[in-house]
Amino acid sequence: MSEKLDNILENIAETIAQNVPKQKSVSSFFEEQTSSSVNTRLRRLFGRQKPVYHLLGGGKSADVLLWRNKKISASMLSGATAIWVLFEWLNYHFLTLLFVALVLGMLIQFLWLNVSGLFNRSPSKVPRLVLPSELFVNIGVSVGNLVNQALRFLQDVSCGGNLKQFLVVVASLWFAALIGSWCNFLTVLYAGFVAAHTLPVLYEKYEDQVDSSVFNVFGQFQNQYQKLDAGFLSKIPKGKLSGKKLD
What residues contact 68, with CB distance under 8 A and at least 6 apart? Predict the structure, then answer.
């Protein structure tokens, strides 16, 4: 009887000894998976944790920019392309197109009223186009908010004392000035419109490849900046930002 108990205890001890390393391997596997997921989450572009759809605000605007509604996205991009072709390639002027559109609208209303009077005893009511005043108010408020945010950001950068951020913003503005010298304002607006309707959907589709390549480029820029900082920027004397307290 005692021998049977000893055999049972030995079997239990062997099974426990065999299962312990398996449990450790499973736990280490889950730790590796969680650490890898955390690393990939941290290496997202701009440190984001939300998907691109939520970063664009969600709703109809995000659906248009990410081509969830292909008909609306294609129509908007086609309309912007048609406007750019009319003004840039065909050299039409805005006032000319505006007045021609007004003349066509008046002719359509005039013919509608008179032709309907010939076939009917009482002429049909001609529809009229009325734009709501809230539309212009909302556009003015949104444009004013964007301009104030841009001015606030530039003044914070110039007065913040961060030399690295100041140099990056100055280089970006200088690059924008070069682009403005190569093409006019309408072409810049069209390029931004096309980029807004193409880059987000491409980034959502190839975000892993884009993030890895962007981080590699950032690493190279960081190495070059460290060399520049060690050789030149660190030798620039920094003034005291806080003055002495008056008695």
Answer: 62
d(Cα 71, Cα 67) in Å, to the nearest integer? 8
What is the distance between the alpha carbons of residues 197 and 199, in angstroms, rounded to a whole number? 6
Q: Kindly tell me if the per-residue pLDDT of 28 is higher than 60.
A: no
Segment 93-103, tens digit of pLDDT: 888 889 999 99
CA-nearest of 43, 63, 38, 36 to 52 is 63
Separation between Cα atoms, residue 84 and residue 91, nearest integer Å: 10
Does the pLDDT value for residue 246 go beyond 50?
no
Q: Smallest Cα–Cα separation from 197: which of 73, 84, 85, 75?
A: 73
Task: Specify whether the CB–CB gap between 39 and 45 falls below 8 A.
Answer: no
Over residues 83-98, the mean pLDDT reads: 88
Residue among 81, 77, 88 nearest 183 (CA):
88
**Helix pair 70-84, 185-205: axis angle to 10 deg:** 150
pTM comes to 0.57
